[in-house]
Amino acid sequence: MIDPLFISAFVMGLIGSGHCIAMCGGIASSLQLATDKTKPIYFSIAYNLGRAASYMAAGALVAGLSSHFANQSHWLSLALAFLSGLFMILVGLYVMRLGASLKWLESLGKVMVWQYIVKLNKFLMPINSLPKALGYGALWGWLPCGLVYSALTWAMTGNSAFEGALVMLFFALGTFPAMLSIGMGAQALHKLLNHPWARITMGSLLIWYGVYLLIIATDKLVH
């Protein structure tokens, strides 16, 4: 049976994929201009597989570190549970575009990580082969994104690096339908995911789930 944490990560990716379109839609669309124009979907798949690989690497890293210390401290484990609930609420507000609730985190990511990684772009352009598309996706998987960072707070609650990687894999799979549809020209899905009412509905679901996580964490704290 699939762990509820993995299902939640998949749903989070699916719900938040409208934000993925806004962040990476231009990149995914540009793969249509690849040299092999008869097989653009292959370039899109390679790009998204590379992106998923980076998410999994990040998930394994944070889960490996956090599980090591959480196993030695009950209070740290509780703190991570509260953190995941809090970030779920923040990402809900972010998806609804009711405030720049995670902009500060993205800005921090740009300063600490992205400004160095983005320089590797020059080695992958032009994207005229599947290995380059895969590498390009792996590179852009490190693009500062509040939604991804929020998913990583879930990965941090994993019991091992492997479990953290799986959380991020399921999150990535949730974003695949929207991201792959860009390369296939499915504009209807893009409009639906970015419609104000759709954002409010999906954001509300994330907020309520965040509250639920906080209630569970509080119950563990009390008992």
UniProtKB/TrEMBL annotation:
<dbReference type="Pfam" id="PF13386">
    <property type="entry name" value="DsbD_2"/>
</dbReference>
<keyword id="KW-1133">Transmembrane helix</keyword>
<feature type="transmembrane region" description="Helical">
    <location>
        <begin position="164"/>
        <end position="185"/>
    </location>
</feature>
<feature type="transmembrane region" description="Helical">
    <location>
        <begin position="52"/>
        <end position="69"/>
    </location>
</feature>
<feature type="transmembrane region" description="Helical">
    <location>
        <begin position="6"/>
        <end position="31"/>
    </location>
</feature>
<feature type="domain" description="Urease accessory protein UreH-like transmembrane">
    <location>
        <begin position="9"/>
        <end position="212"/>
    </location>
</feature>
<feature type="transmembrane region" description="Helical">
    <location>
        <begin position="197"/>
        <end position="217"/>
    </location>
</feature>
<feature type="transmembrane region" description="Helical">
    <location>
        <begin position="75"/>
        <end position="96"/>
    </location>
</feature>
<protein>
    <submittedName>
        <fullName>Cytochrome biogenesis protein</fullName>
    </submittedName>
</protein>
<feature type="transmembrane region" description="Helical">
    <location>
        <begin position="133"/>
        <end position="152"/>
    </location>
</feature>
<keyword id="KW-0472">Membrane</keyword>
<keyword id="KW-0812">Transmembrane</keyword>
<dbReference type="InterPro" id="IPR039447">
    <property type="entry name" value="UreH-like_TM_dom"/>
</dbReference>
